[in-house]
Structure formats: C-alpha cells, structure tokens
Amino acid sequence: MYLLVEKGTDGGFLTHHFITSYIRGGYKVCFLALTQSFGHYCSVAQKLGVSLQAARDRGQLVVFEGLVESLRIMVGTASQHEASPLYFLRNAQKGLMDLYLWVKGAMEPTNDADWKGSVLIVDDLSCFSILSVPLQAILHFVHYLRILLCVQLQGDLVMLVATADDCVDEEEEFLLKSLSHNSTVMVHVEGLSTGACKEVHGQMTVASPRKPSNVQVYQYKLLDKAIQLFPRGTSSAVL
Amino acid sequence: MLSELCKGVLPQFTVIVDSVENSGRSLFNSLVKTTAMRGDLVQVFHFEQSKVELTAGFEDGLVSQMLFHDCFSDPVGWNCTEGILNEPLERETFREMVQKSAGSIGSRPITVAFDSLSPLLWANGWPRLCHALHSLVSQHSKHGMSSCRLLCLLHCDVHPSGETAAVCHMANTTLTVLTPPPKQALSSSVGEMLQIEASACRQSGRGAVEKATVTLDADLTANVLLPTMFVKEKLTEDVNSKNDPTADLPFNLRLSDDERCARDGLVLPFYISAKRKQAILQGADADEGQIFYLPDREDDFDEEDPDDDLDI
Known about the structure:
The complex is a heterodimer. Chain A is of the alpha/beta class. Helix content of chain A is 38%, strand content 26%.
C-alpha cells in the first residue's frame, strides 16, 4: 500500500507517474478519479507516452469519474441517485460501501486477459473528508480496499492524500496517521521551506513505517516528461 | 522488567503505545510469539493485520496452538458477514468470545492480544472499550476460566491524548516506543532496534520506569541492550501532591478543636445579643456613656471662654 502525501504543493505528478507506470507494466488498473476529469489524465498520460483511452478500451484501465458521477447525483433522477456509488452525497448514512462494491466489481478477475497484477489508484482521498464523510467511514473504506487489493488480489493500492500547508485540523491529521500506520511505503511531497525556487521544485521523503530507520530524502525538479531526483543540496543550480 | 517482558513474562495488562514514526508492531508480534512459546494459550483479535502478516516468522506448530479471532476480513460487515464493529461493544463481548474459544482447549493460562485497540476505540469510544477490557481482566475467575492476561497495541497519534491516557491508566505496564538516538539508528544493520520506555505501576503505589534499547532479530526474538532504570518514588503520591491546589496555602483550611472552641466563644463587636439588646432598650445606667478627664500636671488650663472673641 503506497501512501502519497502532498503538503502544500501539487503532488499530481506522482499520480500520473503511477498510472502510466502500471499501464506500461501490464497491470490491471482501477482508477478513482475524484479531482480531475478523465480528459485531464488522458492528456498528461499522452504526453508521457501512454494512451489511457486505449488502455480503457482494451479493459486494462477502469476509471471511476467522480466529477461526472457527482453531477449525476446533483441533477439526476431518484433511481439514478440510488444506483450511484456516490449516493453518500445525498444520504450521509450510506457511507462509502457502495463505492467499495463498485471497485470490487471492477476488479473482479476476468478470463479474457492475463494481467500481471491488480492496482487501485485513488486521486485523492481527501475529497471524502472535504465532502464531510466521517473519518471512520473513510478508514473503513480504505481498510476494505486494502483487504481486496493487498490481501485477496495480492496487488497494490496507491492513494494520494492532500494536506494543507498550515493549520492542519485534528481530524485530518488522525486520518493521515491512521493511513500511515498501515501503509508499506509513504511518499511525502512538500514545497521547500525556504520558498519557491526555479531549479528545485520541492522535497520528497520516502519512508516506510515498518522500517523507521530507512528514510530517504530527495529534492526534485519536474521536467517536461520526467522527474529529476537528487540528494538535498546537490541541485545543478547550486553546485 | 523489560528483560522479563521480552522473555514472555507479561503482567496482567500490557499496552504497547506507538506512533507512525516509531512503530511498535514488530515488538507486539515478538511478544505474541514469545508468550505463545512459553505455553500460554494466545488468543489474538487482529484488526489491522491479516493472520498471514501477523504470523510471519512464527513456526507452523506454534500457529496451530494459537487462536485467531478474525476482525480484519470484515470488521463492519460489507462482505456480508457479521462485523464486530457494527454492534456497540458490550461489557461481556470479549470475555464470552475468549471463554467460548478456550472452552475446549483446557486449563492453559490465557493471553489475549489485540492488534490494535485503535479501531475499537474509534468505533466504541473509550468508556465502552475500557469496560470490555476490564471485564476481560477481572471477571475471568468468576466464570471458571484460568488466569487471563492482556497484551494490546495502541496507536497514540490517531486518538486524542485523553483517550489514550484512559486506556493506559488501566494497564499495569505501558511500553512506549520512542525515537531511537541517531547513533543507534545508524548502527541498526544487525536487526530492528527500538527505544522502549516501560513504565510499570505496582500495587504498592510505587512506579518504576525503565528505558532500554531492544533489538529484534529476524526470528522476532527480542533482546534488551543496556537498560537504564529510573525508579519514581511513590508515583501515585507524587501525582496527587502535584495536583493538590491546597498544598502551599499560607493559612489553614481546617480548625483544631481548641481553635473551634475559641471561635465559638468570641462575640463579634457588631453582634447584638438578646441581653445587650435588652439593656439598650431599658436604658440601663451601666451602659450609659460617661467621660472621665484626668488633666496632666503640665496641662495649661485656661479659665477663659475660648469662644469669647466670636461676639456671639
């Protein structure tokens, strides 16, 4: 289980990286796109040399378009509401069980293709807390996703969580810590404490809660089609 | 204290308090394994790890001697089973489950392990959880069960500090996983190293705190390196005197018997008793005011009227 945490900066490049890498690697990918339209991810992936639309057509990629689905919840009919995985937006009691069942259905193994493995990517999990889903419901959702992906399917679960740069509220912190406890790898992305810089775009910390002594800190620069990683203070602009 | 714990000699209620930065899960797994190896019947309620993850590094024979209550696969019933977190936690829930499972095994000492308490604490709140744990620890003898010990993992950074403190208050021994010193973190190639602070509360009221570095080998064997013992004298009294707001007052809050008698006998000057009131109303001479003047020898007594010049 990979936990990607963006703190006060845009960590979307990590999502694009993981989607394109898994598609290239021949994995079956289920993608919960909650913050951007599918067109946005398509164009970025196209730039990185992967066609998400083609992957979707051949059944390798299953996308849940949160923005489209939420619009249906807002303006659709009652029967459409109840059938939607986002029904919790109208009925807070429902929780995220319907969305989990949708993922479960989407990840069911099919005989027509032989994928290397399964992966679920969520961009991003903070949307639920912004939409006032209780913390416990989010934790249950993630727990079931973890069982489905990491235990039953022996696959990967990649989740992006956005946190504010300052004024972190207590519930948000509890959510992040709870997720961190059960994650295998955590990638923290944050801006530089010294401010924005043209040559160094931020700092990335890779850690594993299971091996607390093994923490790696890098700085990065986003290039047109790649990410340049280097140890702290060794940017070519400095040396 | 820590070396005994690492050998599987657990007090009745042990809590391992950890955080994201300093995970205590490997220590928990190690203590579960060691306790099972000592011959205890270990019953594990696992919420956060699957049975496979939990028993990684355990011998097959050992695993078969343990009992697992699977709270991991379907905690809230989304996969069509009865979720343990769906129903409010009753006082007897765990005790009945433990007793039911242990019924056919015999009279081996029972150790119940929770990995972890955090989902229960989120779902039920600390009062219900504390009641359920207390019932598990205290009432086993009434129901014909052999002695029962508790080993719990608790993530302190996902709950308000008061809730964590409430659970830790029940425990006999609290093992807190601390940040290891930087030198040790660098030299941890031999195995996992944890800095542990063990605080035990004895029935005498004395508390003992021990800090030590614990190494965990690949087979989950825990060894204590260089323990440092700090004994806190009369821990409970320390806490009470620290919180006593009347400790340094410059006056007494209570009176002795003599002081109380003296106070009762005192008549305040503005208080008019029935006797004094009667005397005033009757105009008694004794109470009428009089002025006595005794001039000194050096006084210059003037016979003249002092107001003579006023032409009145």
